[in-house]
């Protein structure tokens, strides 16, 4: 469980950095069992879509 927590913290840091870097389009990844399964795309604070990486 510890490893999972660390992964989630890293993921959050990742998303925060990506968000602050660009005020335009950015993506927030979704994870399942430590695997990246897709991401939400945002534009100007609005979610514009979800993309699956399966």
SSE arrangement, N to C: HEEE
- How would you write the strand order of the largest sheet? 1-2-3
Largest sheet: 3 strands, antiparallel
Shape: flat
Structural class: alpha+beta
Low-confidence stretches: none
**Total helix count?**
1
Could you tell me the number of beta strands?
Answer: 3
- What integer value in Å does the Rg equal? 12 Å
Report the β-strand fraction as a percent range.
Answer: 35-45%
Q: What is the distance, rounded to the nearest whole angstrom, between the alpha carbons of the first and last residues?
A: 24 Å
State the helical fraction.
Answer: 25-40%
| Overall pLDDT | 81
The total number of structural domains is: 1
Region (Disordered): 1-24
Biased composition (Basic and acidic residues): 1-17
Describe, in plain words, how this protein is organized in 3D:
The chain has one helix spanning 2-21; strands at residues 25-32, 35-43, 46-52. The protein has one domain (2-52). The longest helix is centred in the N-terminal third of the chain and has 20 residues, at 2-21. Strands 1-2-3 form a 3-stranded antiparallel beta sheet. The chain is built from 1 helix and 3 strands; from the N terminus they run αβββ. The chain is flat, with a radius of gyration of 12 Å. The mean pLDDT is 81. It is an alpha+beta fold and 54 residues long.
Give a concise summary.
The protein is an alpha+beta fold. The chain contains one helix and three strands; from the N terminus they run αβββ. The model has no long low-confidence stretch (mean pLDDT 81).
